[in-house]
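From the methods appendix. Each design record in this collection lists the tokenized structure first, followed by the designed amino acid sequence. Records were kept in a plain field format so they could be parsed without special tools. The example shown here is representative of the layout used throughout.

RECORD:
FOLD TOKENS (363 positions):
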């Protein structure tokens, strides 16, 4: 009695499995036959102002900057500034120990006096009366002795002048107003050479943006062209600017290309918002138009040398239209002919458009 019941149980399970398999197959067949229509990204054609720009990456620099070094070696006895300090024109910022310089000057003065006495004695010995040897009847040997004496005297005079200048320049003064942006040797009490202990002073009131323009674009720009500057430090602000100078010599970019440095004016540096080294980009406006029809640049398709867009009419069946374009930038392209304001253009799925909806224009 138990065996027939077991077979009956398995029979029911088998029927259920068959029904599930058939249902799954039927569902996939229906799904494959009734695929949903693709959803295209679109943009509405509108009128707006359009600028064609050239971009230049760069950073802020100071147009008035002084790099200061001592003209002689010595013992650095005093440093009166630190990095970030504000200084006034002709303010002393550092000094060398003057005691050794003064002693050296005294030694040179003594050397000068000795040479002077020797020179006067030789003049008396050869009875020149202070006249140049060439004007006195002397033999060649006497002339050479007197000329050498004159050379030695001249040398000691120059030595005195050099040491006097060294003493004079033992103080280091800034020739401009500004901010100390570099102090190579911040602490006194060390010996320096003329090549060390560098100080840099930059004027914060004369800042500019220095951008690099690729050589392929530099022929399109001119001084006084308007530009917009976007700084990394102020991502939500745009600063109106213009070109003040275009470099005459080229520079090499980090990627090995050739570019030219272009100076851009900056607004007044209120509260020192613009600081040396701030990075950013300048967009130079080389052409501009007002109230023109534009579409996103990605909507334009180039096919066999002609330009097309895909229009999405009310029936949602895309139609390819040939257009004539004008001004363009990295975001928008001007439309001169082919479509109208308010039309919807497709901006995605172009591969599907070409295979499924490609048909003659204006159909």
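DESIGN:
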């Amino acid at each position: 009695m138990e065996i027939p019941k077991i077979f009956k149980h398995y029979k029911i399970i088998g029927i259920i499995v068959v029904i599930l398999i058939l249902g799954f197959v039927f569902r996939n067949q229906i799904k494959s036959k009734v695929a949903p229509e693709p959803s295209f990204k679109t943009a509405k054609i509108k009128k707006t102002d359009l600028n064609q720009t050239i971009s230049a990456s760069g950073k802020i620099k100071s147009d008035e900057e002084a790099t200061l070094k001592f003209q002689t070696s010595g013992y650095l006895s005093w440093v009166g500034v630190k990095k970030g300090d504000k200084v006034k024109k002709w303010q002393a910022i550092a000094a060398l120990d003057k005691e050794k310089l003064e002693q050296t000057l005294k030694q040179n003065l003594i050397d000068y006096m000795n040479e002077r006495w020797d020179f006067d004695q030789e003049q008396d010995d050869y009875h020149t009366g202070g006249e140049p040897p060439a004007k006195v009847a002397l033999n060649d040997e006497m002339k050479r002795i007197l000329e050498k004496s004159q050379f030695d005297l001249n040398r000691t005079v120059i030595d005195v002048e050099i040491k006097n200048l060294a003493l004079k320049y033992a103080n280091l003064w800034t020739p401009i107003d500004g901010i100390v942006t570099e102090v190579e040797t911040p602490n006194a009490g060390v010996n320096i050479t003329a090549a060390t202990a560098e100080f840099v002073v930059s004027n914060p009131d004369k800042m500019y943006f220095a951008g690099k323009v690729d050589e392929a674009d530099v022929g399109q720009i001119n001084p006084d062209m308007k530009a917009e500057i976007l700084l990394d430090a102020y991502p939500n602000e745009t600063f109106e600017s213009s070109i003040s100078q275009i470099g005459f010599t080229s520079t090499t970019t980090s990627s090995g290309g050739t570019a030219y440095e272009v100076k851009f004016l900056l607004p007044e540096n209120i509260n020192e918002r613009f600081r040396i080294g701030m990075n950013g980009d300048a967009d130079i406006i080389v052409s501009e138009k007002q109230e023109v029809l534009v579409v996103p640049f990605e909507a334009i398709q180039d096919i066999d040398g002609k330009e097309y867009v895909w229009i999405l009419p009310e029936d949602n069946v895309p139609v390819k239209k040939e257009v004539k374009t004008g001004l363009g930038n990295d975001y928008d392209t001007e439309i001169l002919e082919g479509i109208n304001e308010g039309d919807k253009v497709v901006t995605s799925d172009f591969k599907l458009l070409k295979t499924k909806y490609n048909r003659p224009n204006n159909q």
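APPENDIX NOTE: Residues 2-33 form the longest helix (32 residues).
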